[in-house]
Each structure stands twice: as C-alpha cells, then as structure tokens.
Design goal:
Elements: H1 8-31, H2 38-52, E1 55-56, E2 68-72, E3 75-77, E4 91-100, E5 103-112, H3 119-137, H4 145-158, E6 162-163, E7 169-171, E8 178-182, E9 199-202, E10 205-207, E11 213-215, E12 222-224, E13 230-232, E14 235-239, E15 244-246
Antiparallel strand pairs: 1-4, 2-4, 3-12, 4-5, 6-10, 7-8, 7-9, 9-14, 10-13, 11-12, 14-15
This protein binds magnesium ion (2 copies).
One magnesium ion binds at residues 95, 97, 106, 108, 234.
Length: 251
C-alpha cells in the first residue's frame, strides 16, 4: 500500500499538533517526581490536551484506557497508567499520541526519575537517544525505509543491546498507524522510498539484556521476559524536499 502523502494544510496542522505534544511531554517529565502515580501523569496529560484544544489519541484506541502509556523499567511499551508511584532512579518512557483537527502526531519521551543514580539506565537511555538520532539522520528523499532501520540497528547492536523486533515505527497522520512499517532492524537501500510529505513515527524499542517479551495480565503492558530494562523513544518526522523536520520538538 502506498504511503499517503500529506498536503501543506495537513502538514501545518501536524506541526502545531507536534509542538503541543512535545511541550506536553516536557511538562509530564517535569511532573514525574518520586511519589507521583502514573495515573496522575495521565490526568495531567488529559488536562493539558483540554487546555490546548487537542484530544489524546490513545484514549479508547482499541479500548486502551489511558491517554499515555507509562512504561517503567522492565516495561517495554503499552503500560496502562495506574497506581504505581515513581521511584528515584526509575527509567520511564511516556508515549503519547495527540489529535488536532483530525491529524495525529506520536512521540515518546524517556528519562530517569531524579534522586538516585542509575548508570545502567543512563547508558541505555543514551544509546536509545543515539539510535533515534541516527535513524532520523537518514531521512531524506532518495533514501529508503531500510536505511532508517539499518542505522537504528547498527547503534543498538554496537552498544550490545537488543532490538525488540515485533515493535516498530510506522507512518502516522490521518491514522495513528499508517504504512509503512518502520522496523528497527533492516538492510540499507530496501523498503519503500522516502518522499516529501510523508510523516513517520520513528521509535527505537530496545532491551538491555534480551529481545524477548511477555504480555502482562492487563493484556496491554509488554515487559521484558527476564525483567531487565527496556526503553522506547520516539519522534514524528516529516520528510521535506531537502531532508526532514522533527515535528515533535519542544521550543
Ligand atoms: Mg508512540
Ligand atoms: Mg508510535
């Protein structure tokens, strides 16, 4: 299926939506102090959406009960916000989709809760950020999806970490998940060609010691099978005639 290219009007809306999303994620990070419950971060996200005239895309998506996914430590993705209280040194990934005038952006911020050193989490976080940057750097007309995948894979594997292969990036915009699938592993020069007007969610999803996962009893939360750390980090990117523009950056 060909990737739906966005027109300039749609891009302008996604640009505004992405900025609101990025600033919301920064505010959630600032609020993520020891003792706060992940459901309180969820409530804050819903309040910020209301204030900004956006809607939280995840809420009700396939019956997901939250506006954010708040995945902590061994949790990989899709953790439902709840009674868990953040602790100093926790590795947190907050994933959020936001809709503005029918258009969607998708981003994940990852950070370590202040108050306690966590060198293992810090290293994983740094590699995750580096993998995301490497993937984004490949984005320009003339490149292919496999170039992004290969760049992410190279950073992760050189660091000795593991790609959780069944969780992928994707097109985004009119729908939360659009073609193409963007694997975090792959071969250079393969896959769909990148074209101006494409909007892509790039999201390395990495395990510290394993690529194997399990789904918890809530039927949503995916965690590493061995309980080791995991990270997800994500931006929505527009392919431009010259290269790319990150739509989910805060000022
Ligand atoms: Mg996301
Ligand atoms: Mg995504």
């Amino acid at each position: 299926m060909p990737h739906a290219l966005k027109n300039s009007q749609e891009i302008e809306i996604m640009r505004r939506c992405g900025k609101i999303l990025a600033e919301t994620l920064q505010k959630l990070k600032q609020a993520a102090k020891p003792g706060i419950k992940t459901e309180e971060l969820n409530e804050l996200c819903i309040r910020l959406c209301e204030e900004n005239g956006t809607t939280p895309t995840f809420l009700g998506y396939r019956n997901f009960p939250g506006a954010i996914c708040s995945s902590v430590n061994e949790q990989v993705v899709h953790a439902i916000p709840g009674k868990y209280e953040l602790k100093p040194g926790d590795l947190v990934s907050i994933d959020c989709g936001m809709t503005l005038q029918g258009l969607i952006t998708d981003a994940t911020i990852s950070f370590i809760v202040k108050g306690k050193d966590n060198p293992k989490a810090e290293r994983l976080l740094k590699v995750g950020e580096k993998a995301l940057r490497a993937g984004i750097k490949e984005i320009k007309p003339g490149k292919r999806v496999g170039d992004i995948s290969f760049a992410i894979q190279s950073v992760v594997q050189q660091a000795g970490y593991h790609i959780i292969k069944h969780l992928t990036g994707h097109g985004v915009g009119r729908e939360l998940h659009e073609p193409p699938i963007i694997n975090n592993f792959g071969k250079k020069g393969q896959g769909p060609a990148l074209k101006p007007g494409m909007t892509l969610a790039i999201e390395p999803i990495i395990g510290e010691k394993t690529r194997h996962t399990k789904t918890l009893e809530d039927n949503w939360t995916i965690a590493t099978k061995d309980g080791s750390l995991s990270i997800q980090i994500e931006h929505t990117i527009l392919v431009t005639p010259q290269g790319h523009e990150i739509l989910t950056l805060s000022s």
